[in-house]
Amino acid sequence: MKQEWEQSSKAQVGSQAVGTGAPMDALHIWNGQATAAAAEAWTEEHLAASRACVAELLAVAGARTVANTLAPFDRAQWHLRMAGSQTGVMFMVHPAAGVRDAVQGLSQAVSAESVALGLNREVYQALAAVDVAAEDAATRYYMERVLLGYKLSGVDKDDATRERVRELADKMTELSMSFSRTVQDDVRRVPVDDVNELAGLPEDYLTRHGVRAEGGSLRADVPVVLTTDPPEMSPVMAYAGSRELRRRMYLQYNDRGYPANKQVLLDLLRLRGEMAELLGFRSWADLATVDQMMGSAENMRGFLGEVEEAAREVAATEYAELEAFVRERDAAALPLTLSDARYWEEQFRRTRYDFDSQSVRPYFPYEQVEAGILATAGKLFGVRFEHAADAAVWAPGVKAFEVIDALGADGIVGKIYLDMHPREGKSKWFSECSLVGGVVGKQIPEASLVCNFPEPTTDDPGLMQYSDVVTYFHEFGHLMHEVLGGRQRWSGQSGIATEGDFVEVPSQMLEEFFEDADLLRTFAKHYQTGEPIPVETVQRMTRASAHGRALSTLTQVMYATYSMETHDRAAAELDLDKLLREGYDRFSKYEFVDGNRMYAAFTHLVGYTSNYYTYLYDKVMALEFFAEFRGSGEATPLGGETAMRYRRQVLEPGGTRPARELVQAFLGRKVSMVALKGWIAAGAA
């Protein structure tokens, strides 16, 4: 079987790239000459290989079996996933605008190919004819999910309906990529005419922008212009004493993508609504949840209501404390607006908990954080990371690491790429992306992180805020799920192939380890003195960061509700601005800032569609999972029995079992809201 798989999946992509004269790399679109023509040739090779696998299964004469039907179908899907994931990642990260333009079109072509396969009635009938009763549980579950996917794609509809579904899917892909590209390219600039507006920002931030203290005020020899890139935006919102600067930055950040993306989003929502109706669903929100753990939009509403109820009272207490604090210090700052929130929370925490978040930044220079997270993940999951210095990468500064199993003789079990700093044309978000699907015994999984943390230089250590470090933990949780779950018999079950509303559990669980002082002290060391971060500082940081949890939870409920409502109503009746204002007025304690059009840059509306609830839903499970570590009684939870049980029962199964079974296996029970309620309540303690 290995030889058969390799012939279909590797030999077919081993020819020469058209027009380059250089051998193609079967696995990586960015190898060799990183040109639009090379990317097109590489993608077409994989599409051709996928078509050949489909032709192989359709040519079968006689009884349908797993070997002659499901196996070539899975190989076809592997090629489509390869082509789709790598063109998608290059669209996000490639430094050459011409290549980004090319792969944008290629991504649409791959999506069209996937849609066509999902509507291929002959393939569906061939798969449905396979008897999997005697197969293992993973294969039976795989076939169940494949056939469900076909039914949800409209494969059983008449020819005219299926053709319309195909047209809608192609157009939706085009609109989604247009939306994302507009946000990606729209880096706003925020001029600072009076440099004293930068008072309160960290010294290294000021130095980076040519600003110095002189005579009790700030001076700059050249005009200061900030951008909405995260390393520049985030410190302004947390530390800048100028209310006007915070407001300008807030509006520019939330205005990215506007006005173009407003109509793009409305068109996309209209097409999604038509698609849902064609497939027999009341709304897109029902279609998007029917094969998830949630099950329906009605269940989603009920869940969000539960979370809102759990957070309301604590949020009122948190806000009352914050408002009283501001009234004592600057009554003119009331009522607090959304652009004031992070700044005044920071001031409150400094006074209430004796914790200044700037004070811990010297313990988090980027390179130390990277090394620390690699070491932490290595101990926790029983792996080690070896820098692959000679690996081909798509841009300077991207690092590749081989992931080696430290528990046995498995050797290299995956490969990861870290693309961690901003650059022109790169996606400004923080995400984990699959690159190469793993198949046990045949192909190791490969994945990447695409982030925007401060970049260290010879003169600047790239100091990170502690919230940046939490984000790094979060994204690395995704990465380990992709790698450790990436060794399955079927590529369609490999990596993060669970239900979509389970994917944030491993990432949010790993975040919780950030509060472990002993763990932090292994890598959080002052970049100048080498002294580990004091235990009492970590304790103050943990107590301080808990304040505002209920307020932030309600904000998450607002985002989730907005995502749901935009997909649960007729697009023709939608007023995006009115719905946004209603959401903030209902859920947020802060005053709305006129001109906030965050929906135009809210890329989760493209990726998660109606299902932004996933973050809250998965937080419930993640906290219950982490409680298993906290309550295990093990002296070293990193690498202990609980960690190995988590690796075996949650991460390694990939998509071979329903997510509810993974939860039951690890917890030994159904999940509850107890841990979430305790986590929220800590903010008012």
Task: Describe the fold and architecture.
By secondary structure, the protein is α+β, with helices and mostly antiparallel strands. Helix content is 54%, strand content 7%. The chain has a five-stranded mixed sheet. A two-stranded antiparallel ribbon has the order 1-4. The N terminus is likely disordered.
Residues in helix, %: 40-55%
* Count of structural domains: 4
Number of strands: 9
Tell me the span between the first and last alpha carbons.
59 Å
Please state the structural category: alpha+beta
State the shape: globular
Low-confidence sequence ranges: 1-24
Q: Record the strand order, biggest sheet.
A: 5-6-7-9-8
DSSP helix count? 26
* Spatial extent as radius of gyration: 25 Å
Beta-strand level of the residues, as a percent range? Answer: 5-15%
Please state the average pLDDT score.
Answer: 93
CATH architecture of the largest domain: Orthogonal Bundle
CATH class of the largest domain: Mainly Alpha
Q: Characterize the main sheet.
A: 5 strands, mixed
CATH topology of the largest domain: Neurolysin, domain 3
